[in-house]
Amino acid sequence: LEVQSVELNKKQILVYAASFGFLLMLLLALVIFVGYKQKQKSNEIITQQKKIVDEKNKNITDSILYASMIQSAILPEQDLFRKMFPDSFIFYRPRDIVSGDFYWFLEKEGYKLLAVADCTGHGVPGAMMSMVGSSLLHQIVNEKTINSPSEVLTELDKQIISSLKQK
Fold first, then answer.
1. What is the DSSP letter of 97?
2. Selection from 161, 147, 70 nearest residue 111 by Cα
3. DSSP assignment of 32-55, as one string?
4. How far is the C-alpha of 145 from the C-alpha of 151, rounded, in Å?
5. What is d(CA 141, CA 75) in angstroms, rounded to the nearest whole number?
6. Which residues contact 107 (CB under 8 A, 6 or more apart)?
7. Is 120 helix (H, G, I), strand (E, B) or coil?
8. What is the DSSP letter of 87?
9. How far is CA 33 from the centre of its chain?
């Protein structure tokens, strides 16, 4: 009887141990499954966010490329420059897509006026400043008929301060 009782206890312990092991494996499988599902959700969110970032990046790059075309269009033609200054060349290579550097020239009333400018900043802010600078130079020389380099620079300084509402 005692041997049967010990055998029964062993079997019960074995059943309990097997049940406990099965429950642990089931719990482990559940934890792994939940982790897998959370990782899948995270990956989906990251993929969606990457698509949004890629789209915004494309829009920004396209816009800057278009701005580069506009900026190139306001630069004087190199052929005209070569006619005015035959033994010269133009080396214009923006650091970014658009540039804060620009060149400007004009022949008026026997004068050859040339400006090579480096505006503060690079990229879009510098490009905006180069557009302002080029436009103001054109206005100062053509509309105000100022030809003296020192007077052109003084007027350009005043106009930039005024345009940017600086004190």
1. S
2. 147
3. HHHHHHHHHHHHHHHHHHHHHHHH
4. 10
5. 16
6. 84, 113
7. coil
8. T
9. 40
Residue pointed to by tokens 């982790």: 35
Distance CA 90, CA 69 (A): 18
Task: Dump pLDDT digits (tens) for 14-57.
Answer: 999 999 999 999 999 999 999 999 999 999 999 999 999 999 99
Burial status of residue 100 (CB atoms within 10 A of its CB: 0-12, 13-18, 19 or more): buried
| pTM score above 0.90 | no
Q: Is 133 exposed, middle or buried (0-12, 13-18, 19+ CB in 10 A)?
A: buried
Q: Which amino acid is at 26?
A: L
Tokens 């206890």 sit on residue = 9
pLDDT band at 2 (very low <50, low <70, confident <90, very high): confident
Displacement of CA 105 from its chain's centroid (Å) = 31
- DSSP assignment letter at 114: E
pLDDT band (50, 70, 90) for residue 140: very high
Q: Which amino acid is at 40?
A: Q
